[in-house]
Specification:
heterodimer; A: alpha+beta; Cytochrome-c3 Hydrogenase, chain B; 3-stranded antiparallel sheet; 16 helices; B: alpha/beta; Rossmann fold; Cytochrome-c3 Hydrogenase, Chain A, domain 2; 3 domains; 9 strands
């Protein structure tokens, strides 16, 4: 390859030293990243490879479409529920089922709960250790830490004694020689820039957030019985409401609503007083990361929109976060996105471990094909038993390459917020503008590693606020006399058309998610998902366009190639989910004769 | 340096001994221990260094890890900081790439025979295992190597135990339960999609506390948590016995919390603790939320659908009665259900007797 310019405008050079990061940890699933660095240790080429595939497509063939949510929910247990939501929407769309208003409100509550939970866990438990040096916290002055904490937040757990006790526990932990989860981290790496006191505060909040996250999801347990993987229902939600009569304790009652309301309020407080102040404090030490890791972000962004105010209405008048696409960084023009249009969303596989009859063409998900075809290219170093370096000139990933009107698009919280910003949504605009003012950064700072991480935090705050009001909305609707939670009119397969197809959209915490289903004679004839990490982590397409992960790593300076902390920062800023990206639920139902069974 | 025990650590946090003992009592109750159980827990936590745990991920969705961090008693935080040494876990560990892989080598070498391997997910065997590659190598190879010198292997979730969703027909990657690949090291299956957080915590703390593996049934599940059906202790059981069923979603029966059997509930054929321990710190369970159990901890449950078709012959009960015949009269129904239980209990005792596959002595 040597030096090439991709059609979407990125300069690649694989001439320098190759660095491999595998496993990429603190993500969901299995991801491999390879980068080339030049003599100044600046990244000049990047390779993103999803290295797992579960082949759920054949598995769904011929099954009852009312069961599909449970199967596809198991695509991912981190963003639990997003595939179930997209699935019930797809099946309802296909069969023409309208869900009751309460069901829409409860689904919004479930999904907002996930946003609040998932963004918080991502920040503290999957991403923070890229910015926070745990070992440095041992050198903090607990009194100064207390002063720092109290200067940025009214959060009550901020006394000198509190931080001293925590530091003591941490010291004993480190001195035990058994570092557990913190073993072999890049501690002491020069790219860590927080003072010890900020590190100690962040470690305290890492642990507090670990305790608190389990509280947030109790809301999902109320309406779905359990988390991870709550229960869903085609036609509504399974949880009946009984607010006034005998037997109310067997359904959603005042006690359940009180529990939900109390947790929603606590989640908002935690987000306001811990997550957001920490995010801003940490960001203030890493402002240079507002100029690193942009990649596609300043060019092509897309959101399918989410949180319908009105059941069954996915127009932008109904969606609390709007649908749309931005091309070439032009925020003055929001493009319509149509999941049904065969010319808009297409998936390509020339560099994916799948086979198409004609790999020059992309396929719309309703017509998609998923045929396993693992093979290593001629320039691969190593072999199947031990791959040392991938050959990105050939097939190199279990992720397909989806494109919107031929463009590689970035999806996720940043994309959602920029689309909402461009659509003139005041709630989002105010959050973004006030944060940029606080950090004294221009709008362009959004299109970066730091921008992605900040947008996720702001969206967590946005979602926590909406969660509180969504519970109020549910109560108001019940108060107005509506207790319906499910529409069972078309539950029986005898009521279905002989043949139908549908689309289920969803904005998962990680970005745009779509499910496409075809139903024939009461059974699934085909099923296809295109998920956020498929968009962001995709390999090159036939034209050589690179996608978000690969683009974002270019030009990143790496201080120490043996400890590529900077690569992790940017990749984690996307919150990758590989089980999602490589689930691949396809359509055709052909036997996978190419798979050799041992 | 003397390795720190759980008790050392919590004392240094300023937690009084009284609270420590209270914690031990709660843990003992959660594990179903009899009199004196709290003392055994306390003694173990006061005297033992933290047991290294290597948590590998194969083909999975990470719901088991997510469930684990929902543990409430003890808190996941306290488990990983004070009770075990979670030296490798792709989802949470700080290290990545070769620094992460180095940990596996180090623990396997330095703690030979004295670490726990926990596996979330399973290994695909089709095409030489290339559907799951970790560190450039087939996951199956990594797992088998790390298992070789483990004290015991815990299979988290239905993936590890039975194959779960990717092993549903036609199982395109030939996803294989770990007990079929790991030989000569005891395997404990903790099924569920995911398993209940406090069951996961309970299994780990049991092993640490008693320095033995829990007693297992024929499917290698800890009897303490998987010995009874969801139906046996379901809070809606009385409605089953009385013939009061939800007939359609959101009908009057649904609003009264009646039995979900006719909408496909798998409680009668599912061995799990959902209706006893409960989910998310006991807040709810699938049945409590109004949806039937889908049997997610059972071998092959994905292929026993559709999920909303009722279990027509409750063979596992050893009786002929169905919900319809039970519904004919409350008294007659109750009698049949009681007979069902009595029969099932006897059958189960016969099945269990002397047939447990290994691990009876429980020493890892």
């Amino acid at each position: 390859m040597a030096k090439v310019k991709t059609p979407n405008g990125f300069q690649l050079d694989d001439g320098g030293r190759r660095i491999v990061v595998d496993p990429v940890t603190r993500i969901e699933g299995h991801l491999r990243i390879e980068v080339n660095v030049d003599e100044r240790n600046v990244v000049t080429n990047a390779v993103s490879s999803g290295t797992m595939w579960r082949g759920l497509e054949n598995i769904l063939q011929g099954r009852d479409p009312r069961d599909a949510w449970a199967f596809v929910q198991r695509i991912c247990g981190v963003c639990t529920g997003v595939h179930a939501l997209a699935s019930v929407r797809a099946v309802e769309d296909s069969l023409g089922i309208q869900i009751p208003r309460n069901a829409n409100l409860i689904r919004n509550i479930l999904h907002l709960t996930l946003y609040v939970h998932d963004h918080l866990v991502h920040f503290y438990h999957l991403h923070a250790l890229d910015w926070v040096d745990v070992v440095s916290a041992l050198h903090a002055d607990p009194k100064a830490t207390s002063t720092l904490a109290q200067s940025i937040s009214p959060w009550p757990l901020a006394s000198e004694g509190y931080f001293r006790d925590l530091q003591t526990r941490l010291r004993k932990f480190v001195e035990s020689g058994q570092l557990g989860l913190f073993k072999n981290g890049y501690w002491g790496h020069p790219a860590y820039r927080l003072p010890p006191e900020a590190n100690l505060m962040a470690v305290a909040h890492y642990l507090e957030a670990l305790d608190f996250q389990k509280e947030i999801v109790k809301i999902q347990a109320v309406f779905g019985g359990k988390n991870p993987h709550p229960m869903w229902l085609v036609g509504g939600v399974p949880s009946a409401i009984n607010m006034h009569s005998a037997g109310a304790v067997g359904a959603v009652s005042m006690e359940r609503i009180n529990l939900v309301r109390e947790i929603a309020q606590r989640a908002l407080t935690f987000t306001e007083q811990v997550y957001i102040p920490d995010l801003l404090a940490i960001a203030s030490f890493y402002k240079d990361w507002a100029g690193i890791g942009g990649g596609l972000a300043g060019r092509n962004l897309m959101s399918y929109g989410e949180f319908p105010r009105f059941s069954g209405d996915d127009s932008n008048d109904s969606l609390m976060l709007p649908r749309g696409a931005i091309l070439d960084g032009d925020l003055t023009r929001l493009h319509d996105v149509d999941l049904r249009d065969p010319d808009q969303i297409r998936e390509y596989v020339p560099h994916s471990w799948y086979r198409y009859p004609d790999e020059g063409k992309g396929l719309h998900p309703w017509e998609g094909i998923t045929e396993y075809d693992f093979q290593l290219g001629p320039r691969t170093k190593g072999d199947k038993k031990h791959i040392k370096e991938l050959d990105e000139g050939a097939k190199y990933s279990f992720i397909k390459a989806p494109r919107w009107k031929g463009h590689a698009m970035e999806v996720g919280p940043l994309a959602r917020f920029v689309v909402a910003y461009a659509a003139g949504r005041q709630d989002v605009k105010e959050l973004v503008d006030s944060t940029l003012r606080t950090l004294d950064l221009p709008v362009g700072a959004l299109f970066s590693t730091l921008g992605r991480t900040a947008a996720r935090g702001l969206e967590g705050l946005w979602a926590a606020r909406k969660l509180v009001t969504a519970v109020d909305d549910l109560v108001a609707n019940i108060k107005a006399g509506d207790q319906d939670t499910a529409n069972a009119e078309k539950w029986a397969p005898e009521t279905w058309p002989k043949s139908s197809k549908g689309v289920g959209y969803c904005e998962a915490p990680r970005g745009a998610l779509g499910h496409w289903v075809r139903i024939e004679d009461g059974r699934i004839a085909n099923y296809q998902c295109v998920v956020p990490t498929t968009w962001n982590g995709s390999p090159r397409d036939g034209q050589g366009n690179i996608a978000a992960f690969e683009a974002s790593l270019l030009d990143t300076p790496v201080v120490d190639p043996a400890q590529p902390l900077e690569v992790l920062r940017t990749i984690h800023s996307f919150d990758p989910c590989l089980a999602c990206a490589t689930h691949v639920i396809g359509p055709d139902g052909e036997e996978r004769s190419t798979v050799k069974v041992m | 340096m003397r390795q720190q025990t759980f008790y050392d650590v919590i004392r240094e946090q300023g937690i009084p001994r009284r609270d420590f003992l209270k914690f031990c009592a709660l843990t003992a109750i959660a594990m179903g221990l009899g009199p004196g159980g709290d003392e055994a827990v306390a003694k173990a936590l006061e005297t033992k260094p933290r047991l290294p745990v290597l948590w590998l991920h194969g083909l999975e969705c990470t719901c088991c890890s997510e469930s684990f961090i929902r543990a409430a008693h003890p808190l996941a935080k306290d488990i990983v900081l004070s009770m075990i040494s979670l030296d490798y876990d792709d989802t949470l560990m700080a290290a990545a790439g070769h620094q992460a892989e180095a940990i596996l080598d180090e623990i396997v070498t330095n703690y030979k025979g004295n670490y726990i391997l926990a596996v979330e997910g399973n290994a695909p065997l089709a095409d030489d295992g290339m559907a799951c590659i970790v560190g450039g190598r087939p996951f199956a190879d990594q797992m088998i190597e790390v298992a070789r010198h483990a004290k015991a292997v815990i299979g988290w979730g239905t993936c590890a135990a039975f194959g779960c969703v990717q092993a549903a027909k036609p199982n395109p990657t030939k996803a294989t339960p770990i007990s079929k690949l790991i030989r000569d090291v005891p395997v404990v299956n903790v099924p569920g999609c995911p398993p209940i957080a406090d069951v996961m915590a309970g299994v780990l703390t049991y092993i640490i506390t008693f320095d033995r593996l829990p007693d297992l049934d024929r499917q290698l599940r800890p009897k303490m948590f998987y010995g009874q059906r969801v139906h046996d202790k379901c809070y809606r059981r009385a409605h089953f016995d009385a013939g009061q069923f939800v007939e359609s979603w959101d009908d009057d029966g649904a609003r009264l919390g009646w039995c979900l059997y006719k909408l496909g509930c798998r409680g009668p054929t599912t061995y799990n603790a959902c209706t006893t321990i409960g989910w998310n710190d006991g807040v709810s369970s699938p049945i409590r939320s109004g949806h039937g159990c889908i049997g997610c901890s059972e071998d092959g449950f994905w292929d026993r659908g559709p999920f909303y078709d009722r279990v027509v012959d409750m063979k596992q009960f050893g009786v002929e009665s169905t919900a319809d015949t039970i519904g004919l009269g409350a008294a007659a129904g109750l009698g049949a259900a009681m007979a069902a239980h009595a029969g099932a209990t006897v059958v189960k005792r016969m099945l269990d007797g002397g047939k447990n596959k290994g691990n009876e002595d429980g020493e890892g």
